[in-house]
């Protein structure tokens, strides 16, 4: 299906863009979450206005968050952990642990859903992106080393720092629906589907399609 984005959606597009998405993803996630509407002829008439207002709001947010970005850019965090001989952790370093460490070291509070990373399950050094806005995504250094060993051992165990990414989502203010002629998009904050919600939406769509086929 084709949809008109009402908000910036991470790795999909920006407010005002027309995108073709899987029916299940659109019907079960984007539309009910208020991130998009069907790209009807009436909706498309408002695309440019949504895009212009989103650009203005995005510029304001980027300016506000630039200070935060500079505070955490290239920040280095270290986590001691128990691990097997192969370097696999007995557990993991979660996004919440990273968020807490960022706050402890820099004083900046970051929501775990702004951290584009899967749980870290191996010793080593990682480059972890922090999603502040659609345009500002600074990275921090995360080093996971074996308890009782030197940090340098974990760093040298990998040839280079690995960038880890995973779509994450954060709730944004509701936006006026396009069905009403005077409705306007008031936000440019980045939206992104949670892996769990997206997977559930797709699974539900597949089940519905299979049921209809039978």
Report strand %: 15-25%
Taken together, the total number of domains comes to 2
Report the CATH C-level class of the largest domain: Alpha Beta
Low-confidence runs: 165-196, 208-214
Portion in helices: 25-40%
CATH architecture classification of the largest domain? 3-Layer(aba) Sandwich
According to DSSP, the number of beta strands is: 11
Question: Helix and strand string, N-terminal first?
Answer: EEEHEHHEEHEEEHEEH
Count of helix runs: 6
Main pleated-sheet profile: 4 strands, mixed
| Global morphology | elongated
Mean pLDDT: 79
Distance between the termini: 23 Å
Description:
There is one protein chain. The chain has 214 residues and is an alpha/beta fold. The chain folds into 2 domains: 2-64 and 169-213, Ribosomal protein L9, N-terminal domain (Ribosomal Protein L9, domain 1), CATH 3.40.5; 66-163, Ribosomal Protein L9, domain 2 (Roll), CATH 3.10.430. It is 35% helix and 21% strand. It is built from 6 helices and 11 strands. The protein has helices at 23-30, 41-44, 47-72, 95-106, 151-156, 195-213; strands at 2-5, 8-9, 18-20, 36-38, 76-81, 88-93, 120-122, 124-129, 139-146, 162-163, 190-191. A 4-stranded mixed beta sheet has the order 5-9-8-10. It has a 3-stranded antiparallel beta sheet with strand order 3-1-4, with no helix packed on it. Strands 2-11 form a two-stranded parallel ribbon. The longest helix is centred in the N-terminal third of the chain and has 26 residues, at 47-72. The radius of gyration is 20 Å and the shape is elongated. The two termini are 23 Å apart. Residues 165-196 and 208-214 have low confidence and may be disordered.
């Amino acid at each position: 299906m084709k949809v008109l984005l009402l908000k910036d959606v991470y790795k999909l597009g920006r407010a005002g863009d027309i995108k073709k998405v899987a029916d299940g993803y659109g019907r079960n996630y984007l539309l009910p979450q208020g991130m998009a509407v069907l790209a009807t002829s009436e909706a498309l008439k408002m695309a440019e206005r949504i895009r212009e207002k989103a650009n203005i709001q995005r510029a304001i947010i980027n300016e506000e968050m630039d200070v935060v970005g500079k505070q955490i850019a290239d920040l280095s965090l270290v986590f001691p952990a128990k691990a097997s001989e192969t370097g696999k952790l007995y557990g993991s370093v979660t996004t919440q642990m990273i968020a807490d460490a960022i706050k402890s070291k820099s004083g900046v509070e970051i929501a775990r859903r702004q951290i584009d990373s899967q749980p870290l399950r191996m010793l080593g050094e990682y480059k972890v992106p922090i999603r502040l806005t659609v345009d500002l995504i600074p990275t921090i250094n995360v080093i996971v080393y074996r308890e009782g060993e030197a940090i340098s051992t974990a760093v040298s165990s990998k040839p280079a720092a690995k960038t880890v990414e995973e779509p994450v989502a954060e709730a944004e203010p509701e936006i006026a629906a396009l069905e009403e002629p005077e409705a306007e998009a008031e936000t440019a904050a980045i939206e992104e589907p949670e892996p769990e919600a997206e997977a559930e939406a797709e699974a539900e769509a597949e089940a519905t399609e299979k049921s209809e086929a039978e």
